[in-house]
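so ive been stuck on this for like two days lol. basically i have the seq below and the ligand is zinc ion, smiles is in there too. i just want the complex predicted, nothing fancy, no docking runs or whatever. if the output looks off dont worry ill sanity check it later, just need somthing to start from for the group meeting slides
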Amino acid sequence: MAMTNLQFIEAIAGAAIKYAPQFGICVVSPIIAQACLESGYGTSYKAQYHNYFGMKYRKNRLDCHSGYFRDGSQEQKADGTYYPVTDDWYAFESLDAGVKGYFQYTSIPRYDNLKGVTDPHKYLELIREDGYATSLDYVKNVWAVVEKMGLTKYDERVIMEEETKMGYTNSPLIDCTVLSPNHSGQRTHKIDRITPHCVVGQLSAESIGACFPNGREASCNYGVGYDGRQCLIVEEKNRSWCTSSSANDQRAITIEVASDKTAPYAFTNEAYKGLVELCIDICKRNGFNKVLWFADKDKSLSYEPKAGECVLTVHRWFTNKSCPGDWMYNRMSQLAAEINNALGVQSGNDDVAIKIPNDGKTLYRVQCGAYKVKANADNQLKAIKAKGVDAFITQVDGLYKVQVGAYSIKSNADVQLAKMKSLGFDCFITTVKMADEAFVPRKSAEEIATEIWTGKCSDSRWDVWGNGDTRKERLEAAGYNYNAVQEAIARLYK
Ligand SMILES: [Zn+2]
């Protein structure tokens, strides 16, 4: 099936953009035009062998060809007259190899002056002088194709792809990755904003990731779960669909954070810390040494950040929503101060020192006793709960361990430890590898049994735990052991 001229250009451009940087070449429009002209947009005899550039066979010059073939052609002398030549020509297995062959062919010292040239017309003048072509009108003819087909737009893509490789990375802090197909591909604006959102539900990092399947028409770059764990959802290089504003999402890292389902959409302490950490990491990787919070829509949107500056924006400026909720909105200046603190900016706020966590796979817990006899563990659990602290029991190696919290950030566990000690409990911090446990239990089987029995559900995804298969599915999705919960119901209520 023959390609149209445009399809031919797209195909050559794709391969040229891929290989040019590897060979130190910064423009591709003259190269695409050379291929168009030399191969009649891929219709020439030589093009059957993917030789689009009329490259004569030279022993030991390339390593990406598949062989050579013999064909006649004409060459032009300095006086303008033509003479026939029969020559051997490179044959390639694919278009990609044919284009790679061009770059290898022109990577000998004679063509060194092409490296780093950013003016496409200059590139043509130089390659003609280097002896690539003999035709006197070569530069004029090739340049006419560049102009007629509008090929210089491909030169911009070389620059963009290079910037992407150089500049765009993703956070190494993330605990999980649930990539959403919902994005617009590569950003058209460099990153210079961060936009925190409330996801309206106390979800885990994974559950936030699961919120944006195909067809949902929404996404975000990152999600932060109720426990501070972080999920990569749309790579930083791509534009997410998050803030009801193309202009904002093209330049912002968007972050959905677990929150209450109702106003003021509060975050947990852990989720907020997770957001702070992620923002610090985003700033460090993207070369920001300062974030700015103006608390003013017009000022924020019209501000052009200077090098190293990043502006915080909020969803409510772009649509009729309260996002990120009053809880977070009222803490935006605190968020900016904490990020700037960590970045070394003097802000007069000597709050919290931010601790960058662990490997992302370790959870910190406060352990308040380990018992061989379950009844003793139950008594301790009751005593802790009587002080208003949410605790749970895990069974490990024949011991019933009474624990509080599950933190991905050690400083949060430290705070909890101090609190437990102040309440008179003898505790210490212990760690668990997430891989060792399929889930982080937040409530005991008994508590969940009580919820089920009284028609409540502490997981914000559902109003009730439900019955039968639905209950089993939901309990497992939330990380609870179905059989243990059923057993507790039987024990407590039947
Ligand atoms: Zn939002």
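The longest strand covers residues 67-76. The chain has four domains: 5-161, 170-343, 362-434, 443-494.
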